[in-house]
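PT: before anyone asks, these are the final sequences, not the draft ones from last week. 414 residues across everything. Please model them as a single complex and drop the result in this thread when it's through.
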Amino acid sequence: MSIEPITGRYLTVTVAGAPRRIYFEEAGEGRPVLCLHTAGADTRQWRHLMNDAGVTATHRLIAFDMPWHGKSLPPEGFQTEEYLLTTEAYIETVLAVVNGLGLQRPILAGCSMGGRIALQLAAQHADMFSGFIAIEASDFQPAWYDIDWFHRPDAHGGEMGAALVSANISPFAPLAERWNTLWMFMQSGPGVFRGDLSFYTRDESLIGRLAMIDTARTPVHLIVGAYDLTCTPEDAARTARAIAGATLAVMDELGHFPMSEHPEGFRPFFLEGLAKMAQGTDRQGQAA
Amino acid sequence: MIDIFRGIQRDLDGAAHLQRLGRLFSETVLIEVDGREFYLTFDMGRIKAVVEGPSRKTPWRFALRTDSEALTKFWEPRPAPGFHDIFGLVKIGRGRIDGDILTLVKNLRFFKEVLALARRSEEVPA
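LR: through. Structure below.
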């Protein structure tokens, strides 16, 4: 028998003028790191790092399920609402969680759409954070698929979504973790993956904001997997070039869900990212 | 090439979980390799027939068009990026998917895992 050090609780915050009951997990002590999951998934993607004593000895990792995802309920009245995530609602939600938990300038680590919003926050709300680790994140990609495939009355959107995103998982990923990663997509609520993809594949607003990011104040480190078809190394490199001072690491044997599909392979890249955040703090301290 | 597809047909006969996944899939799929046509006719999750073309009379639901070198790389135990998935082949310009894509997507896990039966390791997933 074993009991993991991860603890889970709920907080209620206000987003768009209405309450959201949000599930969050945390583990560790030290510098806070707020972790954002990908589209169509939830906090479980971060469980390996939250169970990694080498990370949690010096960092307090916190992850939360976005409303509609995992154990966070959709808002009241969802039954007549079309779920379409927007940049504005996403930013408001992340900031509400930061404030609700009383986090003092956490590092923000986000993957895929979580990485996209991390860069949006780096551009618009950098004062709330002390650094950004943007994983499988880029300025923008239009869909190479039809997002409406994933919400139809005649098919299981979760199973189709999982089959699609399996294209983004590296063949080096351990089989068990590949399928644990896909299971989250299979469990995703009806229309949720589609609503996330609407944000991810239709909102181009980050492109014009990348130049606003000041990496001297808050470092930005991008990490991308070579097997990611959705955010390719070329996409991440283009994005990194548009952010003065941003750094980029390419993982040759990983895909779009590195912390979940191949925890051991991702670990050194995440640690490298955390180390770069420390350098940023030092730099800011010197400037002050 | 047709021997590989017939090998997939035999392997699918022994893969109960794939037959269960594909139990509603009864369609003909065209796989075009270096311009040569191969028609795989599925019947309730099994491959009933593998027939080499050319044929102008065989209706098909969707088609995957690629080249033999790309498919050979696809079937390696750990393919290089892009060669690891049929959508990867499309992304890197080594494949094209035509026809009723929605039918493919509804049966995507089944079709991808069937095609990957020729991959040279049981440890490596579809």
